[in-house]
Structures are given as C-alpha cells and as structure tokens.
Write a sequence for this structure.
C-alpha cells in the first residue's frame, strides 16, 4: 500500500451528509441561543429527542369566516358556491388531513394545484398554536419547487423521510396499504427568528407536495411530515367542517387523547420509534361536538375556496350546505 | 522512505491560522454577548472538520452528527466559561473527540452485553449516506476507537503528536505508538482487501 495514497485517502475522509448536517447544526444553535436567552431549559439534540403531543381535550367551537372578496383578484367578487362547487372541491383536492388534533382552517383548489392550511390549538403548557400549510402542484416537479424555495432564501437541509398514511386503508384495516413511504427534501429559511420556517417537498401519486411550517428543528419538520394523511372524499368533506377535523384526525372513533412518541437507540446503534396511544375518558368523549355545520364555500373563476376559523368558546351558525 | 515516519507538530504561526484565530476571538466575544450570528459563523467555519473527526472515530454518519451537534450545543451553553484568547479549534476538537470516544465505548459495551455487533463504518441501509471510500472505512472499522482517534486527529485535523496528546489527554509517546500500530494495521487490511 502506497503511503502517500493512504495519506490522501485519510485526509479526504468525510461523512456524506456534511453540508446538510452543518445547516442543521446552525439551526440547532439558533434555537438553542434563543431558548437560553429566554431562560428555558436546555433542549436535547435535534435528531434524538423525546416528544409528547397533546391532543385536543375538548371540542372546539367554531365560527365561520366568509372569504367574500378575498379569494379573487382586484375587483372580482367571489360568489357563494353551489353544491357543484363542493363536489369540484372534493374532486380536485388530494383530501389532505393532519393526524393528531389538527383542524383544517382553509383550503383552495385550482386546476394547477392548491393549498390546505391546518391549525393546531395547543394546550397552554405546550406553547403557542401552530399552523401547517400544504401546497400541491399538478405540473411542477419536486426539483422545480425546490429551486423556487431556494431562490426564496431557503437552505437545503437534506433528505427527510415522508411516511404518509391512507385514511381509508386505516378505516378498513388494510394494513398493507396503510403507509406510503417516500423520501423528500428539507429546506430551512436563512432568515433568523426563534422558530424558522421549514419546508418539506416530496412527490406522491402524481402530485408534488410542499409542506411549510415554523418549527424548531428538522426533527420537528419530520414529525409534521409523518402526520400527513390522505382521506377519502366523503371523510374529507366532513373534515373541513368546523370541528370536523378534530373528530376525524384524532382517530377513527375519536378516542385518542394523547400520542407519545419516543426515538430510542437500539443496542446495534440504529434507531427505532416507539409510539404510545393514550385513550380518552368517557367524560372527555362526551364533550366532543360533532354537530357543527358546513362552512360556506366560495368560487372565483376556476378557484374554489373554503375558510374555516376555529374560535374556542364560541359557536356560529352557518347555512347548511349539502352536496 | 516511509512518509509517516516523520510526524512532527505542524507550525502554528502560519498567517492564515493567525488571521482565523483573531477572527475566532472576535466571534467568541460576540457569541458571549448572545449574538446568534456569531455562533452560526463559528459553526460555519468549524463544523466540517469537527464532524469529520467524529465520523472518523465513530464510522457512523448519524451518530457523528449527533455527537458533533451535542458538542457544539454544549459549547454554546458554556461559551461564557471559555477564555477567548485560547484557540477555539483545539477546544472544539477536544470536546468532539472525547464525546465521540465515550459514545464509541458505550456502544461497544452494549454490543458485548447483547452479543450484537457494533455498527460498521458507512451509512448502513440509507443510500443517501453511502460511503465514498468503503474500503478505507471498512479498514478503519477494524481499529479500536482510540486508534481511530489518533488517526483522524493526525490526518483529518492535521495535528502533530504533542497536540494530539493534549486533545486526548495521553502522553506524546503513547500517541506515537498508537499511530504506528494503527497505520500498520490499516496498510495490512487495505492490502488484504485489494488482494
């Protein structure tokens, strides 16, 4: 073995994820500094962390926000949609849901794609409420969307697993088709702030998806990505009702109160996830409200839009709009 | 002539390093005042070498990232205790090397208890973490963590025996003997692999 050759090989020894790991480390330090300055406890590692997700404990009363005039361009007044528009919405949407206590707050579809926004009303001890937006594109590739995101000032942060679930398969106990496993790309905003914006982009079933959320780490972005669920059209129409998502996304029977997930290192050095579901008590189940009406749906040209705003402690009447 | 026979401490007073040292001190002072941009600049400057050291000792990209990130975060939390006039890189490399060695020893103990094999160097089943030099990394995996540590501090970090001894807390003579044994074994393993 030639010594100079060995020396060169040793000098070039490097892990394959070097640049992406550096981006993650900067993000970790940024969050760590902001927590330190706020007097918070030291966070754990970004890739190895215990988490506890609190589910919604009470039904969320809902108010309806009409999006008149906000869904279209200047001078165009959106119309109240007909039942046909609800059908169109259901046909063009990929029927996205976020598992674990998230409510759909708005969704919009066009022939080129669309976006659904989800809101999670956390308990006070878990910090402020969170929002996730998932956009989808019918004609753009994941690479094109990634380039667009980088041009907007985001740094590539490496590959992330995207394990989505199929709500219908879950409902009918079809374990083989329950999970769809793929790989996406993560991006982190280079703009500072205590919770930087992160983006996960992946391709699935002929569509390119872009999930955006403000979280403290890539690890938390991965946790958001694994909450993405695809529902059937009927379930999804129920899910867009005020409070409807709270019912559907906690479990098929609304009985899950809390999901605890822990990443555990195995004896062989690999990692595995352990998930524990904690059920609701009968008293908590009795508080769930499944009676909220459908929101109004608006059409503006070929865009169909619905906005739902959850307001704790208040009910609002809305016209019953059935397809 | 064996190129590795002459292993001397590299000169420390090269201009580029002096400039970087002064710049590191400025960043450390700003980091001590709680400026996140300064911490990010230190990471941008020092992450790659620190991560490569951890990777060389552990042979596992995920574990190396965890160890390096943990070392970086511990420095962020303890930055007020650090003397800004001491060079930053050796301090960081000391923390990273010792944490990586602790991790490797703990992993070896678990492997003994469970009769499982410790993970090999390389990225396992993840194709995104596939090694660019699998033969070298397999040969490194055959060394003890202590031998891997002197190899990476010599050839990845560019330290001489005295500096390696200071980083690892071992006598300079021990560094030399470990380096020779490790290089002999690496050569043998790579030749067997090629043969």
């Amino acid at each position: 073995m030639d010594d100079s050759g060995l020396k060169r090989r040793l000098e070039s020894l490097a892990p394959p994820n070097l640049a992406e790991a550096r981006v993650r480390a900067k993000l970790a330090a940024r969050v760590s500094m902001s927590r330190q300055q706020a007097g918070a406890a030291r966070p754990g590692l970004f890739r190895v962390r215990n988490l506890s997700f609190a589910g919604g404990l009470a039904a969320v009363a809902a108010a309806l926000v009409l999006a008149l005039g906000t869904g279209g361009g200047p001078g165009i007044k959106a119309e109240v949609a007909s039942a046909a528009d609800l059908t169109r919405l259901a046909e063009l949407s990929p029927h996205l849901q976020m598992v674990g206590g998230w409510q759909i707050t708005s969704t919009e579809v066009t022939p080129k794609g669309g976006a659904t926004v989800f809101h999670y009303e956390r308990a006070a001890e878990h910090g402020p409420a969170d929002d996730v937006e998932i956009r989808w594109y019918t004609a753009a590739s994941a690479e094109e969307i990634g380039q667009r995101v980088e041009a907007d000032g985001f740094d590539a942060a490496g590959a992330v697993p995207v394990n989505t679930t199929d709500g219908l398969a879950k409902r009918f106990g079809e374990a083989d088709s329950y999970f769809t496993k793929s790989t996406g790309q993560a991006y982190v905003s280079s703009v500072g702030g205590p919770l930087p914006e992160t983006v996960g982009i992946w391709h699935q079933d002929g569509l390119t998806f872009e999930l955006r959320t403000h979280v403290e780490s890539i690890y938390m972005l991965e946790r958001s990505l694994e909450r993405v669920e695809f529902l059937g059209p009927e379930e999804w129409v129920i899910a867009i009702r005020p409070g409807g998502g709270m019912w559907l996304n906690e479990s098929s029977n609304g009985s899950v109160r809390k999901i605890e997930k822990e990443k555990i290192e195995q004896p062989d050095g690999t990692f595995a996830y352990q998930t524990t579901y904690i059920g609701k008590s009968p008293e908590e189940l009795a508080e769930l409200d499944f009676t909220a009406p459908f929101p109004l749906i608006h059409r503006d040209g070929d865009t169909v839009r619905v906005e739902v705003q959850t307001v704790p402690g208040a009910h609002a009447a809305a016209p019953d709009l059935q397809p | 002539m064996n190129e590795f026979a002459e292993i001397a401490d590299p000169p420390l007073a090269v201009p580029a390093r002096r400039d970087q040292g002064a710049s590191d001190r400025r960043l450390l002072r700003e980091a001590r005042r709680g400026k996140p941009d300064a911490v990010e600049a230190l990471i941008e400057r020092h992450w790659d070498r620190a991560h490569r050291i951890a990777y060389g000792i552990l042979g596992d990209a995920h574990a190396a990232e965890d160890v390096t990130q943990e070392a970086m975060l511990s420095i962020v939390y303890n930055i007020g205790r650090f003397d800004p006039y001491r060079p930053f890189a050796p301090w960081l490399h000391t923390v990273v090397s010792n944490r990586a060695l602790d991790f490797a020893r703990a992993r070896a103990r678990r492997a003994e208890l469970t009769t499982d094999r410790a993970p090999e160097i390389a990225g396992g089943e993840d194709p995104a973490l596939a090694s660019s030099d699998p033969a070298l990394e397999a040969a490194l995996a055959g060394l003890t963590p202590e031998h891997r540590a002197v190899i990476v501090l010599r050839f990845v970090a560019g330290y001489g025996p005295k500096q390696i001894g200071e980083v690892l807390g071992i006598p300079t003579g021990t560094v030399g003997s470990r380096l020779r044994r490790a290089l002999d074994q690496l050569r043998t393993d790579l030749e067997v692999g090629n043969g």
